[in-house]
Design a protein that fits this description.
This protein has 72 residues and is mainly α. It has one domain. Helices cover 65% and strands 0% of the residues. The chain contains four helices and no strands. α1 packs across α2. The longest helix is centred in the first third of the chain and has 16 residues. The relative contact order is 0.11.
Length: 72
């Protein structure tokens, strides 16, 4: 499992990926939208990973290309 990134590094990397994929205006618009909408992570997680074991989740993550978010 990869090392966790420091919060500031994670934010910078996430913003770069969003900006590269969506463009700077759409990335800021997206951030604005999600910051004002309530988000229940536990509900999302239960729905998104419903019926999957931890091993299945890890296998799916490991099969995801490292540069997936940076592709245009």
């Amino acid at each position: 499992m990869p090392n966790l990134l420091a919060d500031d590094v994670l934010c910078a990397k996430g913003l770069t990926i969003l900006a590269n994929h969506l463009g700077p205006v759409q990335a800021l618009r997206f951030l604005s939208l999600i910051s004002r909408e309530p988000f229940d992570y536990q509900s999302w997680r239960q729905h998104h990973f419903e019926g999957m074991s931890l091993d299945e989740i890890l296998t799916k993550v490991q099969a995801t290309p490292q540069d997936q978010g940076q592709q245009s």
